[in-house]
Amino acid sequence: MTAPDATSPARPDTTPTSWRDSLAVYLQPRVLIVLFLGFSSGLPLALSGSTLLVWMRESGVDLKTIGLFALVGTPYTLKFLWAPLVDAMHVPLFTRAFGRRRGWLLFSQLLLIAAILLLALTDPARSPFYVALGALLVATASSTQDIVVDAFRVESLPESEQAAGMASYVAAYRIGMLVSTAGALFIVSGFESTGITRTSAWMWGYVVMAAMVLIGTITALVATEPEQSVRAEAATQTQTAFARVLHAAIGAFSEFLTRKDALAALAFVVLFKFTDAFSGTMTAPFVIDLGFSRNDYAAIVKGVGLAATLIGGFAGGFVARRYSLASSLWIGGVVQALANLSFSWLAFVGTSQWALAFAITCENFTSAIGTVIFVAYLSALCQNPLHTATQYALLTALAAVGRTYLSSGAGFVADTTGWPLFFVICMLVAIPSLVLLAWLQKRGHFDALGPVRV
After folding, report:
1. Exposure string over 403-423, b if 16+ CB within 10 A, otherwise e
2. CA angle 214-80-36, nearest 5°?
3. Hey, how many other C-beta atoms are within 10 angstroms of the C-beta on 139?
4. Distances in Å between the alpha carbon of 268 and those of 319, 331, 391?
5. Are 75 and 139 in contact (CB under 8 A)?
6. Are the beta carbons of 389 and 154 closer than 8 angstroms?
7. Are 45 and 135 in contact (CB under 8 A)?
8. d(CA 446, CA 276)
9. Which has the higher per-residue pLDDT, 301 or 348?
10. If residue 149 lies in a helix (H) or strand (E), which one and from where to where?
11. What does the pLDDT read at residue 5?
12. pTM
């Protein structure tokens, strides 16, 4: 999976507050808006990822082709290329009617609904090319929405609400992913139980998911344009769109690349979550191949997995507060790699629901620990407020390289080695990132970033 974007960690307020005050911040209108936008951001990711892979496997598509479908996540990798466009360009009619951020938000959501409906009309068994094209369009619209939502969240919330907003966003993002994985699979099973064909059931399941995007659309209509966005728009009115785009793009890249050990840091960003990405690409086909049902996958992999992820997120926050950034990355990197061995064990056990629940719990719990710590690291790298959004888009795009390109050969590896050895290899692919971590730590890279708060 891909982690939710955040631009910078909020500084904690040292003023003592009561539990009632602490909880009340989550009910602030701005925070609730961010919560619903988090759901809208989390919803489409699986529709071109794990849920689509289940559909393809049930349609008889071979493992090698399924592995190559990791490439449809390319827009998540390249979104930094058009992040400056989202910052600087106006969408005809939409920007004038709704404002700079809300205009782009509504536009990207309408594109997302259209793309999901197009994907619903395809058939993996007959036309994998059109399935890939539809999935690519979904990923493009989804990644564009992510850029806008991230900017909207940061600009609309005051510092005192940033922490609550980010927590709400992440929780809702996970729920959105649960709806488009477990929820979508249950919906497909429900349609199939009415007697319609499996192909039609999948089509209507994706139609329902397209309708779910309207939750984010209604939220965007109810929301108000962030004051920071209004001021930024007024301050750049005299500049041409080209000048605004050029300034955002060049400034973000040049500032980052002039840092010490910048290339090594970027390589580490690409590789740190690669162990998760390599195994995650094949998790759905692996579970189906073992003989588990679609509902088993939905209830255990996504249901139990969500609980393990949320608990792991809190555990990751504890680790990051207790230890230095470098030590925290070591802990997250090692445990998320070792968790792959639980799948190797499951391959020998077979179709045991308890064994599947244990393996999924291990993987999601440790992955969440690594993700929280990794987000803290990415946030620490974005230190220039003039270029934070574009720089974070660049870093998260690079982090998606492992999920999109490096993991595209996972199907070939699994087909050649078999499942037990495949997940051992998934553990071993973490070694390059740990070597880079040791090298960067020795070079003082993490000390230069200063204290990092999650």
Report:
1. bbbbbbebbebbbeeebeebb
2. 25
3. 26
4. 20, 15, 16
5. yes
6. yes
7. no
8. 23
9. 348
10. helix 128-156
11. 42
12. 0.67
Within 10 angstroms of residue 126's Cβ, the number of other Cβ atoms is 11
Examine the pLDDT at 168 and tell me if it is beyond 80: no
> Contact 57/284 with Cβ under 8 angstroms?
yes
Q: List alpha helices for 45-99, DSSP H.
A: 50-58, 63-68, 74-78, 83-88, 94-98
Quote the DSSP letter at residue 150: H
Kindly indicate the confidence band of residue 228, based on its pLDDT and cuts at 50, 70 and 90: low
Number of neighbours of residue 238 by Cβ within 10 angstroms:
7
Nearest to 440 by CA among 353, 317, 330, 352: 330
- Spell out the residues 6+ positions from residue 125 whose beta carbon is closer than 8 angstroms to its own: 59, 60, 61, 199
- Read off the DSSP letter of residue 25: G
Query: Do 284 and 54 touch, CB atoms closer than 8 A?
Result: yes
The closest alpha carbon to 203, from 277, 148, 261, 122, belongs to 122
Of 313, 445, 452, give the one whose Cα is nearest residue 376: 452
Q: What is the pLDDT of residue 165?
A: 65
Angle, vertex CA 219, rays to CA 116 and CA 138, nearest 5:
15
C-beta of residue 105 within 8 angstroms of C-beta of residue 220: yes
